Amino acid sequence: MDTYDDSMAARFRQQLEQREQQLRALLGNPGEPAEPAGHEVADFKDLATQESQAAIDDVQLENARRELQQVMAALARIAGHTYGVCQQCGEPIDLQRLSALPATPLCIACQTLQEHRRTAAPRR
Ligand SMILES: [Zn+2]
């Protein structure tokens, strides 16, 4: 398996910084400005559409915020020469995975475990 080494730092840093800019642009423009006043008599269908649209935007923004945190953490790891190593188990992350998901903090094994734990969590 190919793994990351510091000679690839510039390439990954560039990729991450591009993503950072995209995410910051997204988070800097949270949707359309509010509708002007005078729409009190909107019918229920319109209202429902607006509300579900807002909920989708919230999820997208939340995801973007989380991804931005991961991107920033990955950039910090590149600067600190600890990039490319799983934050959970300390094993090197497969280079193919890193290329596809440069901000990922976890190797595929730990990611799978985490998702499994999340979906298999017992109900209370
Ligand atoms: Zn791991």
UniProtKB/TrEMBL annotation:
Keyword Aminoacyl-tRNA synthetase found: no
Keywords: Metal-binding, Zinc, Zinc-finger
PROSITE patterns with a match to the protein in the record: ZF_DKSA_2 (PS51128)
Zinc fingers typed dksA C4-type, residue spans: 86-110
Residues in Zinc finger DksA/TraR C4-type domain copies: 82-116
Protein name: TraR/DksA family transcriptional regulator
